[in-house]
Amino acid sequence: MTLFDLLIDFHKEAPRQGPGSPEETRKAIYLLGIENQTNLAIADIGCGTGAQTMILATQLQGQITAVDLSPIFLDELNQRAHKNGVAHKIQTLACAMNDLPFQEEKFDLIWSEGAAYNMGFQDAIRYWKQFLKKGGFIAVSEISWLTHSRPEALTQYWNNAYPEIDTVSNKIRVLEENEYTPIGHFILPEYCWTEHYYQPMISRFDTFLEKYDHAPFVVDFVQSEKEEIIQYNQYKEYFGYGFYLATK
Ligand SMILES: C[S@@+](CC[C@H](N)C(=O)[O-])C[C@H]1O[C@@H](n2cnc3c(N)ncnc32)[C@H](O)[C@@H]1O
Questions:
Q1: 102: left (phi over 0), alpha (psi -120 to 50) or beta
Q2: H or E element at residue 246
Q3: What residue's CA is closest to ligand 1, atom 10?
Q4: In the chain, how many domains are there?
Q5: How large a percentage of the chain has pLDDT more than 70?
Q6: Which pTM was predicted?
Q7: Mean pLDDT rounded to a whole number for the chain
Q8: Which residue has the least CA distance to atom 26 on ligand 1?
Q9: Is ligand 1 within 6 A of the CB of residue 29?
Q10: CATH number at residue 210
């Protein structure tokens, strides 16, 4: 079993696979002002098990293509869509986000919560732009610095983990440099990390360890997830997720 398989197995039962919340997805939709538009063609890229897909499907009128590398996450998403009565609005596609099979200018809206980092923010918004209609919208949440300065150890950690982490103003600059017009941005509140992401994760640690009989690589995996939570609690004033909204 690879680390990716283990990650999928651990996170497939989670309400979501990254920080966020229904309230914040709704807020982003509201800021775009698209609730009354009809026949929207929407892509939800790096959708995971579909926490935000369910909100998009209930709030917006149109069809959603939910894309993720993991067919296991997509199976879970389909089950949730059936339970929520929105299956008729969602098609799933197991596919790499940097090799999408879509025709140019297919979508009115490209959505991606906590997933663009897999390509890197700039490469993602650049590559996905061809699939957006002119005047279409993009909504991306992305790890960001919340302050101009911060402890050196934290800078070093993130420069290794994800060198594209940057300030909010620089994320917006990247959107502008790639010929998007910014519409708005906001920072995900702390409960998007704690209540919606870390607490459900903590409650699964013991049963997950038992499932794998405390195998050393699973113990190491759980430990690394715990360290991520410790780091968040220690440094949460310096980094978080920005939600960036723009139009082509
Ligand atoms: C942090 S999770 C976010 C999931 C979901 N949007 C949420 O907020 O709950 C990132 C997602 O990106 C997916 N992913 C990772 N690399 C990918 C790739 N190259 N192409 C498509 N999806 C990918 C993962 O399977 C995972 O579901």
A1: beta
A2: strand 239-247
A3: 115
A4: 1
A5: 100
A6: 0.97
A7: 97
A8: 48
A9: no
A10: 3.40.50.150
From the CA of 96, give the closest atom in ligand 1: 20
CA 246 to centroid of ligand 1, rounded, Å: 21
Phi-psi region of 111 (alpha: psi -120 to 50; beta: other; left: phi over 0): beta
Atom of ligand 1 nearest to the CA of 17: 9
96 CB within 6 A, ligand 1: yes
Rounded-to-integer distance, Cα 182 and Cα 185, Å: 8
CB of residue 248 inside a 6 A radius of ligand 1: no
State which residues form the domain around 171.
Answer: 3-247
242 lines ligand 1 (CB under 6 A): no
What does the pLDDT look like over 141-170, one tens digit per residue? 999 999 999 999 999 999 999 999 999 999
Length of the chain (residues): 248
Q: Give the model confidence (pLDDT) of 206-246 as tens digits.
A: 999 999 999 999 999 999 999 999 999 999 999 999 999 99
